[in-house]
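Q: Convert this sequence to structure tokens.
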Amino acid sequence: MGGTQTQMPKQHSVSSLEESPRSVRRNRALLQAARSVIEQQGYSAATMARVAEVAGVSEGTVYNYFKDKQTLLDAVLEAWAMPVILAIEAVMEARKTPSETLRDMAIVHLDAMRRTPEMHLMFYREGRWVGYLGSRIHALNKRYVTAVMDTFHLARQQGLLAPSANAELARDMFFGSLEHLGVRTILAKRSLDIPAAASELVDQLLMGIVKSQSIAVSLGKITAHLETIGRQVAQIDLMSRPLDSKP
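A:
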């Protein structure tokens, strides 16, 4: 992959890489080189040979640290995702109201899309299909999902969601709305007021769907009652006319 090789270099053990400061620095340099290629040229250009060229090392050195392209790109995705997940968990730890928490999570998510669009695209196009289940990037994503689910459960406990509301469906609506919003604006290189958009999205999800439906049902019942009263008044009026006409 990425060029002709006559002999595959011997890979370092994970423990030796972690124990050696020089190996740690080299590992970081290779990850940065791979990410640079992805962000500037796209996923398909991030071959082992190209990463080696950008890092200023031999292709064999890259294979010393990563057995293949998929292993390398998984490590790149993990390094990219970790700060985002930590930011999401920091939002949870702030213990704001559920709506404020979801808004701040949405801001973190959309801002990550704005700052690293190519990485975001790689994650959704490549990172979630090849060897995703059980991977470290899968574990990181589950931490994000858990934070969102916990927030929706809290919202239901506080009466923001109906007791019968499906938290899993609300979660899917939250993530789906974020992705669609980000794709049609940020990834399309259109301007977006992220804080305002995040607030509107969460308000629509929590209030526009749940509360406005309740109001609509109440208004419908009131209208029906008024129509019934109107018919009764009309009947009383008709019944009273003969009495009024007596001398």
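Residues 7-67 form a domain with the Arc Repressor Mutant, subunit A fold (CATH 1.10.10.60).
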